[in-house]
Design brief:
The protein is built from 16 helices and 21 strands. By secondary structure, it is an alpha/beta fold. Strand 19, helix 13 and strand 20 form a beta-alpha-beta unit. The protein starts with a strand and ends in a 7-residue tail after the last helix.
Length: about 500
């Protein structure tokens, strides 16, 4: 039997290829960053060709490091930054425009125009999402309006649209020589163009956004044999695809209704499994697809999306030069006992859940001459924990489920100071699994199920092992006062953009 499963994890700042054994343990991994482009305030772009190149490079490196070849892999899954979009020519494979990243806010005017007829929740009943710059559909509408010749190409059938998963699958399966044009239900659910119940593109919404439906990829289950790869992964079945946060849910084995996870990456994303029926949020959360295994009924989630968490640490590193490496933030933050009363609300792209306010912008409040870079570093970390608390409060109200523990994953969960503060401000235990990078693991699990490498969900559950647990150790009065200060700080960021 072939011994391993591979996973491509294409994230906002980097791309990884990871190889897992049957026990869900990492055998080999390679990772490379790609460049971030900020051509105008509020605009964020990537080079899709660079992302494809990085993908090929990390596949070669991870296989070489482990001394493996393609024949050692039973299948490969893909997980990706979700709402980031690519448009390209189906005959040449060349993008018409740089990828527009999920953090980008250029579609603010389009979203406001759409909201004039029906408000911010105009499409929410059908797609589970509010009108916001976060999602893919308005980004595609912007490209159709602003890129010369692109609408004509789209209407003539020459242009292809997709989120990053679609771009990678198309290239991996042959590109201009018959590449597959598809996405999965989780990524499609983030476009604002897919009906939650039918799992099909919504013709009415596409018409309102003036999007030709012929350029949209085919929607498939998350765990499914899509087809064999060509080229660098020649012959290996591509068999799993999930948006990164749904992949983390899958990797954390949150297969039962009420189970939840929180991923700490560029942004922060909490998902709760709500079962086979979508739950409409009344408290600012998103209703989204969790996963679909083959032809079984789809599983839905409530999600709280936070735009800036790990990205704030990168901002401290790259824009201010206060730290040299991201991991240095913990040492700097630990040099002081508290934040000296300051709060950092990182509304760089507006505020996501539970506010959905594109008029907000980042703010540091409570500054005095006493404050030093250690206090600023601590406020940066605490911002992630406070934003997670806001999402958890909303999730408990929507679901009527009181969370007893929080499973965590992502790059920031190795920050001990942050994890302890997270447990303190939530007043629940925080648990990190042995394999903390569960995004790639979830994609591997989806692919492995589809090709029979793993037999069922119970087998996946048996792989989950706790690595560390943090228990709350903060007096209730201190917790309440700190959180009240955060809520007050958030109000100072609102209505900054006219």
């Amino acid at each position: 039997m072939t011994q391993y499963i591979g996973a491509i994890d294409q994230g906002t700042t980097s791309t990884r290829f990871m190889i897992f054994d049957h026990g869900g343990q990492v055998i080999s991994a390679a990772q490379k960053e790609h460049k971030q482009y900020f051509p105008q305030p509020g605009w964020v772009e990537h080079d899709p060709v660079e992302i494809w190149q990085r993908t090929c490079e990390v596949i070669r490196e991870a296989l070489s490091t482990a001394g493996l070849s393609n024949k050692d892999l039973a299948g490969v899954g893909i997980t990706n930054q979700r709402e980031t979009i690519v448009v390209w020519n189906r005959d040449t494979g060349q993008p018409y425009h740089p990828a527009i990243v999920w953090q980008d806010t250029r579609t603010d005017e389009i979203c406001r125009d759409l909201a004039r007829d029906g408000g911010q929740d105009r499409f929410r009943a059908r797609v589970g999402l509010p009108l916001a710059t976060y999602f893919s559909g308005p980004k595609l509408a912007w490209l159709l309006q602003n890129v010369p010749g692109f609408r004509h190409a789209a209407e003539n059938g020459d242009a292809v649209f997709g989120t990053i998963d679609t771009w990678l699958i198309w290239n991996l399966t042959g590109g201009i020589k018959g590449g597959l044009n598809l996405t999965d239900v989780t990524n499609a659910s983030r476009t604002m163009l897919m009906d939650l119940e039918s799992l099909k593109w919504d013709d009415d919404i596409c018409s309102i956004l003036q999007i030709p439906t012929g350029m949209l990829p085919e929607i498939k289950p998350s765990s499914f044999r899509y087809g064999p790869a060509r080229g660098i992964l020649e012959g290996i079945p591509l068999a799993g695809c999930l948006g990164d946060q749904q992949a983390a849910l899958f990797g954390q084995t949150c297969f039962s209704s009420g189970e939840a996870k929180n991923t700490y990456g560029t942004g922060c994303f909490m998902l709760m499994n709500t079962g086979e029926h979508p739950v409409a949020s009344q408290y600012g959360l998103l209703t989204t697809l969790g996963y679909q295994i083959s032809e079984r009924p789809a599983v839905y989630c409530l999600e709280g999306s936070i735009a800036v968490t790990g990205a704030l640490v990168q901002w401290m590193r790259d824009n201010l030069g206060i730290i040299q490496n991201s991991v240095d933030i913990e040492t700097l933050a630990a040099s002081v006992e508290d934040t000296a009363g300051i709060y950092f609300v990182p509304a760089f792209s507006g505020l996501f859940a539970p506010y959905w306010r594109s008029d907000a912008r980042g703010a540091i409040v409570g500054l005095t001459r006493y404050v030093n870079k250690g206090h600023l570093a601590r406020a940066v970390l605490e911002a992630s924990a406070y934003q997670t608390r806001e999402v958890l409060d909303a999730m408990e109200q929507d679901s009527n489920v009181k969370l007893t523990t929080l499973k965590v994953d992502g790059g920031m969960v190795h920050n001990e100071l942050l994890m302890q503060f997270q447990s303190d401000i939530l007043n629940v235990p925080v648990i990190r699994p042995k394999v903390a990078e569960t995004t790639a693991l979830g994609a591997a699990y989806a692919a492995g199920l589809a090709v029979g490498f793993w037999q069922d969900l119970d087998e996946l559950r048996s792989n989950w092992i706790m690595d560390k647990r943090w228990d709350p150790d903060m007096p209730e009065e201190t917790r309440c006062k700190a959180y009240a200060g955060w809520k007050k700080a958030v109000t100072r960021t609102l209505e900054w953009v006219d």
